[in-house]
Amino acid sequence: MSNTSLEQISQQLDSENSRDRLLALAALREVSPEDAVPLIKKVLNDEMLPVRSMAVFALGVKQTDECFPILVKLLETDKDYGIRADAAGALGYLKDRRAFEPLVRAFYEDTQWLVRFSAAVSLGNLQDIRAKEVLLNALESQETVVQQAAIAALGEIKAIDAVEAILNFASSEDWLIRQRLAEALGNLETDKSISALKFLAKDAHFQVSQAAIFSLEKLGQQI
């Protein structure tokens, strides 16, 4: 992108109109990470939460060496739990395994379920088997969405020895939990996984049964 265009985006980020600033952030999709990140940093402390949220997300997409420490600091210190959750999610996009420890701390120490949910999802995105114990603990969460994230993440990290624990959710009343289970089992091939998938393939909820059928096909199994 030309310097003129970058200057236009920079000026738009200085606009008093928050919609202009959001549009400027969206325009950075076409900008190289090296050029985009300095511009993103201009609005990381924006007075409008949607602008800040979009900027944090952008740091997970436009990856430079600067992004990791910025996101960790936001995760650990920002007063707004939505921004902390955004930072946790962005760290998952980075797929930098240095994020493992900060995400684990966030999961155990942050009081907001949304942050714990984002941390669990990102631990799956890192595909680091060290996350297994944290995610098994997440299965005990009082928040259903955190359980959903943990089941999905255990599949992402291919934690075969977690199959017994997640099979306890095969009859959950929450269809999204059953769907996440069906998807996760497609990465966790055991005899019990296949039996559970055949059970879930007959689920009354279409999205659950379809996820189970897809996982069975992925494992080379017939219904």
Automatic annotation (TrEMBL):
Any single Gene Ontology cellular-component annotation: phycobilisome
Keywords associated with the record: Antenna complex, Lyase, Phycobilisome
GO molecular function: lyase activity; oxidoreductase activity
One Pfam family per UniProt: HEAT_2
Record bears the keyword Lyase: yes
Superkingdom: Bacteria
PANTHER family membership: DEOXYHYPUSINE HYDROXYLASE, PBS LYASE HEAT-LIKE PROTEIN
Protein name: PBS lyase HEAT domain protein repeat-containing protein
Organism: Aphanothece sacrum FPU1
